[in-house]
Structure formats: structure tokens, C-alpha cells
Amino acid sequence: MRRVPAAGRSHGHLSIAGAVGRRADGTIPDDIEVQTEIAIGLIAEILRLEGFDLSALVDVTSYHVDIHRHLPGFSKIKARLINPLYPRPGH
Known about the structure:
By secondary structure, this protein is an alpha+beta fold. The protein is built from 2 helices and 2 strands, in the order ββαα. The protein has helices at residues 32-49, 67-81; strands at 6-10, 13-17. A two-stranded antiparallel sheet has the order 1-2. The protein is globular. The mean pLDDT is 88.
């Protein structure tokens, strides 16, 4: 059973918490890139149900086990799926 992240509205803002890269069957892939795609997919689905898409994101806070090993893969997928609010230098 998939754990759906909690979401709530307050003062015109939507907050989403608890998006984990866990498959629908409860297993967690070994690959951080797959985990990231799943977690961002859950966020995207909540946003879609609320009438938004990933471009509405203002901030993403993530927590990692073994950040030195996982951050490059996480960052790669995040950059592919979520466009930054402001243009990055050189873009």
C-alpha cells in the first residue's frame, strides 16, 4: 500500500510533507534516482489534484541518508523534473 504524502492548505499556500521514494508495493528501490522519480511523481500528483504542476513549487527540502553518495543522483533527477523558480546562471 502506497503511503500518500500529507498535504494541507494555509493562507493560500499548499504544503506537502512526507514524499518518499517508495513503490506502490511498499518496497524502496536501491537506486536514488528511481527513488527521486517516485517521490517527485507523488508530489506532482498532489499538485495536479490541487490544480497545479511542478512549476508551482517554491521550495523543496529533502533529507538524505548518506548524502555524499546520494546527492548527485537526487540532484540530477530533481534538475530534470523541476525547473528552478529563477533562471540559473548561464541559462
